[in-house]
Amino acid sequence: MATFITLVVLLFVYMNLWFVVSVIERRNDIADVAWGLGFVLIAVASFFLYAHVTLAGLIVTILTTIWGVRLARHISARHVGKPEDYRYAAWRRDWGSWFYLRSYGQIYLLQGALMLVIASPVIFINASVSVPLGLLAQAGLLLWAVGFFFETVADSQLAHFLSNPQNKGKLMTEGLWAFSRHPNYFGEVLMWWSIWLIALSLPYGYLMVIGPLTITYLIVRVSGVPMLEAKMASHPDFPAYKARTSMFIPLPPRVGSTEGA
Q1: How many Å apart are CA 249 and CA 56, to the nearest integer?
Q2: Got the DSSP string for 165-212?
Q3: pTM for this one?
Q4: Which of 181, 187, 194, 176 lies closest to 248, judged by CA?
Q5: Which of 79, 126, 196, 239 falls between 20 and 30 A from 89, CA-CA?
């Protein structure tokens, strides 16, 4: 318990530092950069704090670090030379005089708490004395690679598309985006389910399903897909794109359909 409390304190200090940076920089979307790196902190800190050096623990710590650093770099590059993300800008307007207090609680402290829940399989594995790398763990590694491919390639394709001035005002509907309207989010969710598969190799590992369930719910029902779908809804090409393209799980484009899946 003392080790877990130390981990919580480290994350609390970490999120407080990012809140201070957001106030200085006057942009709350810096929290998106803190998101990926926060998981790196949790993974690395839990690996060393619990001091149960296992191959599985080393693997999930490395995988989480690769994912978190890549995501943070991608988001940082996306922010360069651009105004605050529209979601955070809207909250800045709507929250008025309560802006800083609500930002601190609803963005930074809440994200810190969610990180602990989502990363619970990683913490669980690092806290375990031994983790057998059986078929479930091997399947998890394979699925993680698939998820990383989808998130990385989809992000790269979108960034390349948006960098072309000729695509201004257009929807990205090519590459992986022809099979899913949110292939990057699909990849992210798949990676967290894959780490849970590795945790299943341990007694009571199934309880760590709270991690992938939480990130799946947040992305599919709360802050990921719904917000982007609402933003795209006003685009004249969106109804046709929605009709032929799966919302989340990559599937072959539909022909003759009138509804999104």
Answers
A1: 28
A2: GGGTT----SGGGGT-S-HHHHHHHHHHHHHHHHHTTSTTGGGGGHHH
A3: 0.93
A4: 181
A5: 239
